[in-house]
Structure formats: C-alpha cells, structure tokens
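Quick one: structure for this chain?
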Amino acid sequence: MATQRMTQTQLVRALAEAAEISNKQARAVLDNLSSTAISEVKKNGVFVLPGIGRLVKVERKARTGRNPATGESIKIPAKKVVKFRVAKAAKDSIVPPKPVAAPKAAATKKATKKAK
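Got it. Here's what it folds into:
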C-alpha cells in the first residue's frame, strides 16, 4: 500500500504552526535553508542539519562498467556527486536497532559446567 508523502505546502503549514509564524514567513525560512545548504555544499563540501543528517559532496573515481544491453565494457569518467547521510539519532528513532542477543553457545557451556 502506497503512503502519501508530505508536500512542500504541508511542510510550510506545519512549520508555520509549530513556530507560530505566517505561512509566508515559514516558506521564506524553508527557501533560505535550502539555498544556504546548496551554497555551503558548493563552498565547503558539507552541510549539517543537526539531528537529521548531512549533505556531502563526494568525488567518485573513474571506473569500468558494463553496458547491460550488450555486455560491452565502458569507461565511466570521474565525477562529483552529492549524498545525504542520515544522522545516527534520526536513523535509530525511525528504525530502532535490533537488540544484540548473547551467543547461545557460550550460555550452554556455562550451564553444563554448573550442572557437573
């Protein structure tokens, strides 16, 4: 089942309500945030949104790939890409990590030693 994603208008309204400002002011904040993020990544290579994640400019090396239609080898040139790396706190709150289970083999050895 597909879920609806939040639209930009809905985000602006939610920001306006939370900050108790007008929709126009909230849109200006959102526009300013995005333009600041873009300029910082261009200038410094990274932009951090505390608690959410970071935009990072990454340089990919040249490599050899394959054309999936023909199987022919092709050279893929080096290029710069932008990646978003999610902060650990955000990741853990959205998808909680699985608890680490104790190894069962060690537990059974201890139980057999105590039984003897």
